[in-house]
Automatic annotation (TrEMBL), chains A, B, C, D:
Its EC number is 1.1.1.18. Belongs to the Gfo/Idh/MocA family. It comes from Streptomyces hyaluromycini. This is Inositol 2-dehydrogenase. Residues 134-249 form the GFO/IDH/MocA-like oxidoreductase domain. Homotetramer. Involved in the oxidation of myo-inositol (MI) to 2-keto-myo-inositol (2KMI or 2-inosose). It comes from the Bacteria. It catalyses: myo-inositol + NAD(+) = scyllo-inosose + NADH + H(+).
Length: 341, 341, 341, 341
């Protein structure tokens, strides 16, 4: 396996630049072959010092650049549909950052295009599935020793929200991770959503409904509750407790070095998702490179990306209406039969 | 303070017998002066070996027995109203186990009778207010260092439910503790309740809706969610996380001796509320005896007992309807002005 | 059991006053009948507001005061021998604070006097034996499920040492608790001691060898190491890990409410032994009162007090010499046959 | 940086095969160019499926194979000296597994040879320096916020010892990790060692002195105690608590998913060092590849390998003699001036 997989990276912003660094310095078996960004200077900066990389303003040009064998899409969500469909046409494997396609109509077009090919090409960037703790929980639930899962209690907290973050984004940007994680952990589709809104924190920007308590029902009769609080002020915390018939399991506790000094016994809390999930991103991209080099496609599918978009849209409607909102999914193509991979 | 407070204990069942033992063997400054139970043999058994105790079938006779200066009511809830009113007539301080009076109409009569006296005589047995961890949390919230509380996440689990336990009792017997604890911790009244019902555990008795997720709204704009699961199979767990504007605090983690052996690192989980809250019961009764001997009445009031009954009734209606149910309280008499004692 | 046990308390300093409060307000079944202190004003202050207490400068006068049925000795260690022997002469049960008698020659005289009576009258105040965590550990070790104990790792830390605290006192005052706890947990005698001295903390008073690492060997082949650090600056920490053939068990971790806020996840550390072991003191005195009223003597014996003094003396010699020092105990009278009560 | 670093791996046993897999599949920027093992079949098996690798029985032949730019030595310790000196002659950077050279005389020859070159070529495989928790602790100690370190309490436990494991190997194989970690964390040399031997566990093989308590003194006046217990039966545990003047810090607690079910709250314990330190090995080799490609040598030095051998030899003598044994190091060449890298 001496040949390195040539990857075109679309998007050279925060996330794209991080993936370029990861492909170059951490991941075994791949190299950056092309990069595309409307801001050409940013694209050039992101690949400074790398050899054999072509730089493009047009994502499709990057797909067609010399040496490109696979695509990593890290541009903003609304820009994903076109290169996904283009990659399908070219038969190129794709790792596409979440959200796959933010609006569910576009997401369904991607599902239908891939289903039309009759084989998977896309892996969606739900990196929690590659986190060691989430995998341990998944494995425990699948093992069945605790019986059927009845409830998931989830927490999703950020230090502060970036400028322009809206109440809807608590659901379609933040909680979208829990939407995928819940579907994957349970192997069930989400069927309804309700959003409860306590009086907002006075530390949240004016007008932002933060925190929220988001409640999902599933087609297996389970309940999922998510506290999402993006201006909690103290850290990045992602926790999940699965309550089963004969036991419960918790992940995501803050567990680092225990320091005892004046003021008590103290453990650091991660400040940023790139810290908390750094290993998950590394494993995700390595797994994608490994599978791609072996001609396989694994991991979260375009259907997972589509379902996540539909649920998030229902969540935003539920936030607005204050009531319970049903989730309506299109029929699932056979290509995506197995939900609990 | 050489004289011991003479206490009439009403009810000699599980709880009554435990309080008799506590008054005799653990609590300083009190003695059991009389005991009443319709089952006279049970009453006699409960005070075997104690001197100077009279035994009665009729609770009111126990109130009038020689040496009785205070009353501890530990009979079944529906039997509480009569002796409460009788104690008020006699000016006797009362410690009344929860529920004060299960139906809110009767509970309101007790409130009005005490308010008519113009002074408090009753303390209601919400013993969590005397638990060291709950007090620490209350003190932290009152200190204000974490800002305003936004949400409480609560867990209430039992190994298994006793025979005859109904779906409504998950709310009016189990969650009633969280109802009081939430009101006390937040210093706010609960204004609405919604009950979500996942598919029941297959280990729960046929027909029992177990677990449930109970959601309360408060007049201060906070949210309280309670997982109640009375056939969890593994232990008695009562946890609470308060999420505030600038931090969160958790109590009720399982924390005993850490044993590491084949199978992993392990900590025992309490099996029974009398184990988990043994100290709280001791402190509650000691505090009541101490206050009574000094002519004072402290702790949870008849209003707290009334409000708990009203909220629990609304919760049972919400369980049946599946929808959000408003809580309607009578006007609060001035006697009970301060909710956050 | 209506009659309260009349107790003479010797010593009205910090510890004596605390025991007076405990007997009066917390312990069931006892009352303070007499108090003695060379400083009569201090004695009077300590019993202000209590009825039926006589106040004495002479401890022996307190033993003979009206209503005295038992004695609690809380005066300084060197003053213990005389009232212990006097109590034995009068057949009075005694609870004697540690050290029973600081010099081992005097301690042996107490052992011999009690052994001469042919029955136990003294309980020594090693209160850790009444701490819930220590009892859990003792019970686990006695159960044998983890096999034979091989090592105990102990930590004993204080915020700061009081004025006049000497290097020897780290052993004969602080570590004396671990000496008794190790003997009790293991049911073995300590046979040798070595003291290692790292370079002292710059926060320790000039000339104080603080911290120290004290190593004990036992007649059962176990090892006990104790870190003693009395100017650690941050809290009062007493921990113990028992390493057995098939597992280990730890107690004394800092475990209170978990508060997460800017700066990390934090738990309070107790600042004072009266906080950490408040319950142990309460249980100790209650157990002594209960046993005494039933005509029994239980708990740590005069032999335990003697053995502790001998080991502590050997420890101080080991500190001075830098080498391994053997512990030489007198033959154990039959009265004290069972070490592992 | 398109060119991959060509590495010769010496030794194709358990550890060598693991490093070959790591270089091929996980590490970015390197490839296996040659492999040597006296057992040629084993060497061939270890590189099955890899392109461009030559296979050798003689390690020096592997050093001279085409494309070899660096060497990773994973053969048994006694076979390390020759290829280390040969790599120095050829100017090849080396990553050498621990022990660098087991006997201190040979180790000193390696130090002198490298010092003679006037520049570092060797990095020694003390992988704990690359473990995230150890690095956090090192960074905390170096920051100085807790004051000067006074003691390290270390635990090193294995499920069971492999066949042929001797009492001396508890020190020179197991504790050698703590020897390096202590030197690195403290930035101090170890000056004396004492070994205490409790009665062995009955689960240890006949004649094996297991567990042991190993005590080190340092030239900075700190103390290091290590419990080493290689037949603890339950897991692989490596813990370290640093006690400083103004606080303590602990790493290596067992912290995974918390599962609560019948029997209590439970966390898994790692069973194997390749699990506990998998990330550390990955980071170590990646760091070595990265530095080598940039023409730099970092990480633990030949001096660290030498000092570790000297201290381990003193430890084995201390185990045999039962007494305190001084550690005598040769003068440190200037090349290794900075101990606290």
């Amino acid at each position: 396996m001496a040949e390195l997989l040539g990857v075109a990276v679309l998007g050279a912003g925060h996330m794209g630049a991080d993936h370029i660094r990861r492909l170059d310095q951490l991941v075994s078996g791949a190299r950056v072959a092309a990069v595309a960004d409307p801001d050409l200077d940013r694209a050039k900066d992101a690949v400074a010092g790398l050899d054999g990389v072509t730089v493009h303003a047009d994502p499709l040009a990057a797909l067609d650049a010399p040496g490109v064998e696979a695509v990593l899409i890290a541009s903003p969500g609304p820009a994903h549909e076109e290169p996904l469909l283009a990659a399908f046409e070219r038969g190129l494997p794709v790792l596409c950052e979440k959200p796959m396609v933010p609006d569910s109509t576009g997401a369904l077009r991607v599902v239908e295009a891939e289903a039309g090919l009759g084989r998977r090409l896309a892996q969606i960037g739900f990196m929690r599935r590659y986190d060691a703790e989430y995998r341990r929980l998944k494995s425990l639930l699948d093992g069945g020793g605790l019986g059927r899962p009845l409830m998931l209690h989830c927490t999703h907290r950020n230090v502060s929200s970036p400028p322009g973050f809206t109440s809807a984004m608590l659901i379609n940007s933040s909680v979208s991770h829990e939407i995928d994680a819940a579907r994957w952990l349970l192997g069930q589709e989400l069927t309804a959503v309700t959003v409860l809104r306590p009086r907002p924190s006075s530390d949240a920007p004016e007008g932002l409904l933060d925190p929220q308590l988001v409640l999902f029902e599933t087609d297996g009769g389970a309940l999922v509750d998510v506290e999402v609080f993006v201006n909690c002020g103290f850290g990045y915390q992602v926790r999940c407790e699965a309550v089963c018939e004969r036991g419960s399991a918790r992940i995501g506790e803050d567990r680092t070095m225990l320091v005892t000094s004046a003021g008590g016994a103290r453990e650091e809390v991660a400040q940023d998702y790139l810290v908390r999930f750094a290993d998950a991103y590394d494993r995700e991209v390595q797994a994608w490179v490994d599978a791609t080099r072996q001609g396989r496609v694994t991991g979260p599918s375009a259907w997972d990306g589509y379902a996540s978009s539909v649920v998030a849209e229902a969540g935003v409607r539920a936030l607005e209406s204050g009531g319970r909102t049903a989730v309506e999914l299109a029929p699932r193509p056979d290509l995506y039969a197995d939900l609990s991979r």
